[in-house]
Design goal:
186 residues, mainly alpha, 6 helices, globular
């Protein structure tokens, strides 16, 4: 085992697989699910890129500001739609977390290695702590909600891959778990 590098690659695989499933969900028959799936696919692939171990790839200087800009733009539709539902608010918080992590990586003393580890810092910064609390709570609540949905869903023969609520929740749960892991390493 190589410690952080191996766990980093596992996180890359989890996020990329989640992003790929979200791309499949964009073929849903329901318009709202297609839109949400597109944003979640972007989030999954963006998290996969951010989780690549620094020993494997050192991103160029412009990469983190570009990531911050992409996720800020991706958060705009969620900002407009956040007043209509909690799912949109979650997407807004997720996009904000990605912007925060990209900015942190760009401005940290170790930004050349691609990860925002500032040596000698004591404690967790307030935004990181708040995001950690939110995503841990989201993981716990979604995990509890996932159990009854999986039991009620049955065999799912009538639903396409993009329309299965238990898979959608599992997708969001895995991304939230990955977000917790990424925030813990900041």
């Amino acid at each position: 085992m190589h410690g952080p590098a191996s766990s980093g690659w596992l996180l890359v695989a989890l996020c990329a697989a989640t992003g790929a499933y979200c791309l499949l969900r964009t073929r849903s028959r329901v318009e709202e699910q297609r839109r949400a799936a597109g944003g979640e696919a972007l989030m999954g692939f963006g998290m996969a890129v951010m989780a690549v171990p620094a020993t494997a790839f050192t991103p160029p200087v412009w990469a983190w500001p570009a990531c911050a800009a992409v996720f800020a733009l991706a958060g705009l539709p969620a900002l407009r739609a956040a007043r209509t539902g909690a799912c949109h608010l979650h997407h807004l918080i997720g996009a904000g977390a990605m912007v925060y992590m990209a900015v942190t990586m760009a401005t940290s003393p170790g930004s050349g290695d691609g990860h925002g580890h500032a040596q000698g810092d004591a404690g967790i910064p307030l935004p990181t702590g708040a995001l950690l609390l939110y995503f841990v709570a989201y993981v716990l609540v979604t995990g509890v909600r996932l159990v009854p949905v999986a039991a009620v869903a049955g065999d799912g023969r009538g639903a396409g891959w993009g329309d299965r609520p238990e898979l959608t929740r599992a997708c969001r749960l895995s991304m939230a778990i990955a977000m917790v892991a990424m925030l813990l390493t900041m």
